[in-house]
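Hey everyone, long-time lurker, first post.

I ran two proteins through the pipeline my lab uses and got sequence/structure pairs for each. Pasting them in order. The first:
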Amino acid sequence: MPTLLLQDGFRFFFYANEHEPKHIHIAKADDFAKIELTTLRIVNNYLKPKDLKKALAIVQSHSAEFEVQWNEYFNKG
């Protein structure tokens, strides 16, 4: 499971067997969330409200980079 970014205690990653739509998983301690990259729609959330707000801001600022990494990883081969 490739880790794309570690920031402010969050780990942003995807699994090796992911599916569309493009999304990112976020973990902080034992809490986690899943957010779609293009729409920033929250698919799953078990983060505290202030952590979710911070995670969304980070995803928004890195969404283009995350999409490039998704495309590179899943379009290899």
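...and the second, right after it:
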Amino acid sequence: MIERVKQVVQECWRFLRFLIDHYVEDNCQTTAAALTYQTLFAVVPALTVTYTVMASVEAFAGLGQTVEDFIFHNVVPENVSLIQDYLRSFSQQALNLSIPSAIFLTVTAFLMLFTIERTFNEIWRIKEPRHGFQRLMMYWAVLTMGPVLVGLGIVSTTYALSLPLISDVSESPLFLQILPLGLSAATLMLIYTVVPNTNVPFRHALVGGIVVALVFEVAKFSFAFVMSRSDFQIIYGTFAVVPLFLLWIYVSWTIVLIGAELVKGLGVYRFQGSNRLESPLFQMLIVLEVFYVSHQKGQVVTEQMIRDLGPRINLEKWTEYRQALVELNLINAVERGGLVLSRDLSEISIWELYQQLPWPLPVHGVGNESDWEKSLSELFESIANRDETILSGDLETLYRTRYEDDTAGANP
């Protein structure tokens, strides 16, 4: 029992180190600072666009105020919430701007969303961002439908709480604290799911949303506690709310980016398997075997099937591997989702595959889970001078032998 607890603690420490290393590697601290300044300039345009859209639909009248009040009461510390009156005043004045000025404000809000999307894609190592109309529609949905959905959620919850059957429960102080936390977690979960241009597992986004929402609550309380005992008011006077608001935005973006690293880490961290990975070329062959087997069965390769290879391949490099295989015309995406083999593997030899990839020829293979891995490992170990003739066999023959033996054994 003690040994098991020790292993869990060590694994948690390794995972924490993994998150810290990637947070630093992805320059998240610098990005949080950049997003802080962009948010300062974009928050008024974003509020203006939200107010304009909601005011144009009679059914949503007053919903913008509900969303705004929820954010400033549950997301922003109390000693910073005074900025709400300033922002509301600026937004109301912005509604009277000319069309060119309104377009400029909208572009400013879109630029902030572009930076957020680019940052998330860099964290997930995605090299294929959204383009054109798809990106524009996502940004517009975030600026318009996002606040509307949050507002409808608040209104629906308020109505549900007014029902006689649960009105007594809704008056519980614990319930009133959990409700805003749940809405915050749901919003964050949606951000981690939608913004990256990749398939983020729901359970990972859910864990990230809950953890970040809890951290936000702790950070909000700590921020208000510390700043209430600081001398900002003496130094800045009535303008103290501005630097405090800037500092809180920076803290918020730091927490959100840490949450993004957490969600990504849950999907790529190797909780199982040895610390030693096969070489990239060997990993590529393991991936191609999945495509070969799925092709024989008439199946589509899904992201979950690739994630199941986590103990054997570096999932963080999967985007790079996929791009390389697509460029070699070995795999292709299908409309209904997933990937399929798009080239006969008998047409490409192991040597040709090696020559078209940027990785060195491995000295040996680590895995010995199948006959082809054992035989290929022996070949790698026997190659001292990169002899091309040794790897002249095609990929289909490499994989086919194992499955022909399995078929023969199943049909005596």
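Reply from user beta_strand_b:
Welcome! Quick read of the second one: The chain has a mean pLDDT of 76. Strands lie at 331-333, 339-341.
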